[in-house]
Structure formats: C-alpha cells, structure tokens
Write a structure and sequence with these properties.
The chain is built from four helices and two strands, in the order E-E-H-H-H-H. The protein is mainly alpha-helical. It has two domains: about 55 residues, no CATH class; about 40 residues, no CATH class. One zinc ion binds next to loops.
C-alpha cells in the first residue's frame, strides 16, 4: 500500500504510513472495512466511498400546525368584473375585500400575548 502523501510503500494492514504518519486507511461508514484513502469503493460492502464521504444533506426542520382556513366568495363577482379592466375590477372588489377581511392573528398568540402598553 503506497502512501498518498510521501509515496512510501507500506505493509498492508497498516493504518498509518511508516514514512510520514499519514492516514492510509479510512473505515467504511457502512461496514467499517478499512479501505485505502484513494479507493473509491469499499472492499467490504461496495459502498461508494466518495459519495458517502460527502456531508449529509441538512435536515429541514418541520413543524406540524393546525390552521383554520376561511374560504369566501363574492356572489356574482365574476359577472361584475368580466367586462372590466383588471385595475377597474380591483377597484370594485377591494372595498368589499377590505370590509370582509378577518384578522389572521393566531388564536394562541391572541390569548397569550401580553397587552401592549403605550
Ligand atoms: Zn507517507
Ligand atoms: Zn463497506
């Protein structure tokens, strides 16, 4: 087994180079087999050592939440805006949407948030 650092020839089975002390073998993350640092696939299980040496993809933190969704429709709105320009249609619908909008503050935040003092 030749050292990748200094080129010394080492007895097989050595983990570190006899010439420079560099690491000669890398334990397979899958089976623990001692592979040479320049070997691409594990001699014990065939795992792709280049791939398994890469850092694992970061785990996305997920959270389960209960949400309440309110769907509403303005009766006949499509007929009202069908022949209008987008800006004109928005001008017609905006006042309705503003009046019907519901504050979307989470209930938990509403009940636990301290009262703001001015
Ligand atoms: Zn060496
Ligand atoms: Zn292996």
């Amino acid at each position: 087994m030749q050292c990748g650092q200094c080129g010394s020839d080492n007895r097989s089975g050595r983990r570190f180079c006899s010439g420079c002390g560099a690491l000669l073998t890398v334990a397979c993350p899958g089976c623990g087999f001692a592979n040479a640092v320049d070997e691409k696939f594990c001699g014990g299980c065939g795992t792709d050592l280049a791939v398994s040496a890469l850092p694992a993809a970061p785990v996305l933190e997920t959270e389960r939440k209960y949400v309440t969704l309110l769907f509403a429709d303005i009766r006949g709105s499509l007929e009202i805006i069908a022949d209008r320009d987008p800006e004109e249609a928005q001008a017609v619908l905006d006042p309705v949407l503003e009046r019907s909008s519901v504050r979307s503050t989470p209930l938990a935040a509403r009940s636990t948030a301290p009262m703001a003092t001015a």
